[in-house]
């Protein structure tokens, strides 16, 4: 059985997490969550297409676009958790046939860069998703209140 490398898993979670690539790498092609991750990603992309087609006032887009952001932010968090996992815990969980101090679970500079990028970009995407969804929600509430008051 091939050893699972912590650095590879962290980068896959950060770059390909919304498509489930890290789950397929760690758990195989029959992982249910790996196959479910592209669903909110695709819905978020569809929400972005709706904004381009119907404009920013489209109600469905402010519900769909945050799905993409939250999925990406969750995968960035997963990359951080993989990268910060101790070698002993990593190898015990994903490389049970190897020694606890095996090289596959060691933290390298590439792992640190994956953690740093996931932290910076994941946080920015999360905050942007929250701001977008709340802004659209409150604008909708104000518009509805104006309709009631007239």
User: What is the tally of helical segments?
Assistant: 7
End-to-end distance: 69 Å
Query: Roughly how many Å is the radius of gyration?
Result: 19 Å
Q: Main β-sheet: number of strands, strand sense, barrel status?
A: none
- State the helical fraction: over 70%
Low-pLDDT regions: none
Class from secondary-structure proportions: mainly alpha
Total strands? 0
What is the string of helix and strand elements? HHHHHHH
Mean residue pLDDT: 91
What sort of overall outline do the alpha carbons produce when their principal axes are compared?
A: elongated
Instruction: Kindly estimate the percentage of residues that lie in beta strands according to DSSP.
Output: under 5%
Helix-strand blueprint:
Blueprint: H1 6-16, H2 21-27, H3 32-36, H4 38-54, H5 61-84, H6 87-94, H7 109-149
Provide structural commentary:
By secondary structure, this protein is mostly helical. The protein has 7 helices and no strands. Helix 1 (6-16) runs antiparallel to helix 2, helix 1 runs antiparallel to helix 5 and helix 5 runs antiparallel to helix 7. It starts with 5 loop residues before the first helix and ends with a helix. The model has no long low-confidence stretch (mean pLDDT 91).
Defining traits:
150 residues, mainly alpha
Sum this structure up briefly.
With 150 residues, the protein is mainly alpha-helical. It has helices at residues 6-16, 21-27, 32-36, 38-54, 61-84, 87-94, 109-149.
